[in-house]
Model the fold of this input.
Amino acid sequence: MELEIEKQSISVVKTVYEGEIKSCADGSIIVPDSKPDILKVCEVTAEPYFTEKLIEDGKITLKGKVRINILYIPDGEEKGLKSINGSMEFCETLKRSEFKEDMSLCAFCDVDRISYKVLNSRKIGIDTKIVMSVSVFANEQKELVSGVTADNAQTKSKELKFTGKQDYEEFSFFIDEEVEFPQGKCAEDLLKLDACITSKECRALDGKLVIKGKLGICILYEDCDKKYNHLDCEIPFTEVFDAPALTEDEDCEVSYEIRETAYELKNNQQGTSSLLVKAEIAVGLKTDEDSAVSVLSDCYFTDADCNFSYEKAEMQEVSEQVKFSAVIKQLLQKAEGCPDIAGVYKVQAKPGITETAITDGKLIVSGKILMYVLYLTDDDETPIASITEEVPFSYTIDCDSKLSADSRAVLGVECEHISYTISSKDAVEVRCGLMISGEIINVFEENVISDITAQQRENGKNGIVVYFVKEGDSLWDIAKNYHIKTDSILSANGKEEDGKLSAGEKLIIPID
Done:
């Protein structure tokens, strides 16, 4: 018999790998010839960033650098605070046969912990542990049967909703600006510079991504009077990138990473200072494309026997976007024996999610915030000190969509804003605004028809069958069993199209 099968090609997202990769960057930092010997180290900080993310057939490679800043008390007659800046490299590979070059690689890195040891007055050993959150995903093509055209073909369809395509791409841009110190402020020596993205806006246009934000810079410096001061400033930016796949006002997820940086202090004859800032900013763009397709779910012929070939298609669907904000307050006390707080240079909060759980249709998110205060003192022996405390959090978030055991939450958390109050010479109260955001994804497996074959059946005898409806029977199942149209059963029994069947009900089945 003549049989025309209609097929539809669709794209489905498959998560190939999702997990953490740990690395380390270790080595020695040598004190430059222009700097005095080390008497005591006050603070060592590290900030990692990627220089290369590469996916090949069979492996991924992640390379990066760690910016190191060391604040120390010099040995000898020279008093005060000095700094050393350096960098170290890290590289990790992960080999898996399922990795392919055309897949998407998304990765973020952070410092897990840092330790140091003063080897001698001119050398410090640094050991930095780095954790990388990595995901690899692919857009796979599937051929599904969407319909069939043949004489006496009876078909039933169903609609599948899923994430049809997921893309991740990176852009970069450069900031090259001169920041003026306030009138009357003169910097003699730069001790520490911290940079972060302080505000973020993004908008999708047709084929374009527009981002706006500010690069916030916090500067610790020694002024011309040999006193320690700090300065906070912001450099605004607006960038437009070509993104052909984007459509107007499409929801997209944008991430930022500060890569290579360079700073140069300039002092002019009027007794004021300025800072030349150069920075490379990487922008990650992740987009999800929702799809819906009608596929053939069942089929039979009134004059032929048919066989189906099935294929299991793993799909995922974003069931809900999560956006939850909260404020955490914490009083941070200096350790016993540490000098008193004279002023605060920097307050930092690094939140992280440690566990997510879905229970009774609710999303439970637990994590911790590493709160850090670097403060100035009036003690010449220890002019700078810090307070670090780990603060746990846990929130229950109500969800609008139905969640199942197969649902999973892909979430991130960031500190949207932070402020502080010096409560006393011993404590600082920190207020941190948290934003938990991401997606709840339902992963499901569909057994879809991939092909149909049919063989003409010899005509049987005409007649009537009396059938008693069983529990769970449907009109479609009964009609399919007797190779007749559902309309024939409805007509023979005087039923409407949407007439319901009841267990034990008697039906007349006309056999043509």
About this structure: The first strand starts at residue 4 and ends at 30.
